[in-house]
Amino acid sequence: MTHEYFLWLSVFAYAIHIFEETVLDWKGFTESVSGIKNLKWADFFVANTAVLTMGICGAMIGWQLPFFALLLPSLQLINGLFFHLIPTIYLRRLSPGVISSCLLFFPIGVLCYWGADRDYFLHNSTIFSSIFCATILSITPLLFFKLQLILKSKR
User: Fold this and answer.
1) What is the pLDDT of residues 105-133, one digit of tens each?
2) Contact 38, 148 (CB under 8 A)
3) Residue-wise over 86-125: b if at least 16 C-beta within 10 A, else e?
4) Which helix (H) or strand (E) holds 101?
5) What's the rounded Cα separation, in Å, for the pair 88 and 98?
6) pTM for the full predicted model
């Protein structure tokens, strides 16, 4: 038996995370701490739809392409740590998404990597490439928002 099914738990955890961020006003929190004022809920939902789609594709592909399958779990670990847990501790203010990060992202993300290892699909190159690509993916929205501001200022 393989442990690819953990990848589906990761997709479910992400859906719960989106709900938490929506209910606890991720947009208002992010605008207040980042200074970025051009955030829109529509952009939030489009970006999260893309992430969920990536996660579903990764779960369907599974260990046939392990680095891709582990993109969502890796993104969840990065997002949970750097965009939720650390800001909550540093700012002493609840970051919308920190609850699902701690209760779901961290344990399920680790579980996905553990499952890949148990199934003999986890290699150093897989770890590096999944973390590297997830890091790039996690900063992409910030780059697009900055680019949007630059393009608007040139008009």
Assistant:
1) 999 999 999 999 999 999 999 999 999 99
2) yes
3) ebbeeeeeebbbbbbbeebbbebbebbbebbeebebbeee
4) none
5) 7
6) 0.94
